[in-house]
Design brief:
This protein is an alpha+beta fold. 44% of the residues lie in helices and 21% in strands. Helix 2 packs across helix 3.
Length: 116
């Protein structure tokens, strides 16, 4: 699986061997927008066109094109991992929330996708 970026939009990419086509899905929006192409150039072009069409539609109906994120989410982990993370946070002198935020920020900064 790969990804494409255009403006502030990111899309996941897949390939269907059965259909012999590349296809993608735009992430971070409240709607389902899919696109496809038989080559990478067609796929990139279809992605850009899908983004532009979506932005135009959102403007026409007065809708924010981006999904809103409230800054909190639930994560389910094994109890022993929860305990280890809690004690690690305590040893570093921060709250569990601060520790997890710090670890996630570090991971994103080190990843190739940190630019999103």
């Amino acid at each position: 699986m790969g990804a494409l970026k255009y403006k502030d939009f990111v899309a996941t990419l897949e390939y269907s061997d059965a259909d012999d086509v590349f296809y993608g899905k735009i992430l971070g929006i409240n709607d389902l927008i899919l696109f496809e192409g038989s080559s990478t150039d067609e796929l990139k072009s279809a992605f850009k066109e899908a983004v532009e069409d979506y932005l135009e539609l959102c403007e026409e109906v007065g809708k924010d094109p981006y999904k809103s994120f409230k800054g909190s989410f639930n994560v389910r982990i094994p109890t022993d991992l929860h305990k280890k993370i809690f004690f690690r946070a305590q040893r570093t002198g921060v709250s569990l929330n601060q520790y997890i935020k710090k670890v996630l920020e570090k991971d994103i900064e080190q990843s190739a996708e940190g630019c999103c």
